[in-house]
Specification:
A two-stranded antiparallel sheet has the order 1-2. The protein is an all-alpha fold. The mean pLDDT is 84. It is flat, with a radius of gyration of 28 Å. The protein has one domain.
């Protein structure tokens, strides 16, 4: 039996070449995506995991997300016979929604305040650097 298992046919060669190019592109894209990038607010270089974290928080920490979660919960309750449930189930559901809402409100404030604080701290550091440069310049020239 003549088999060409070990031989590279033109079709196999094309498939292997295409697969190798695809893998190369995926690896290059991953390397580029995981490189530290500057934070849009502070300019600090942040790693990939932190970029993803800030991106997801930016999606979640919005009033529209809070309203959507609240409306979704109320619609779900209204359409699934929630009013016929046991009082403990109702209490747990309402308490859970209240906890989510409180956490979202606190998270919104903290998220936005963290960004503002970071920007102000960078301005203060630049001002401090300028003051130190002036002090050093006056110390050098008595």
């Amino acid at each position: 039996m003549m088999g060409n298992e070990g031989q590279e046919t033109p079709a196999r060669y094309a498939i292997h070449r295409h697969a190798a190019r695809l893998v190369g592109r995926v690896v290059r894209a991953w390397v580029v995506a995981t490189q530290p990038r500057p934070d849009p607010y502070t300019g600090d270089m942040i790693p990939f995991a932190e970029q993803v974290s800030w991106f997801l928080q930016g999606l979640i920490r919005r009033w529209s997300f809070l309203v959507a979660i609240s409306l979704g919960s109320v619609i779900w309750w209204a359409t699934t016979g929630f009013l016929r449930e046991d009082p403990l189930v109702k209490w747990n559901a309402v308490a859970s929604l209240a906890a989510i809402q409180i956490e979202m409100l606190v998270g919104l404030a903290m998220y936005n305040q963290t960004r503002r604080d970071a920007i102000i701290l960078r301005k203060v550091l630049k001002l401090l650097d300028r003051v130190l440069e002036e002090v050093e310049a006056t110390d050098d020239n008595p």
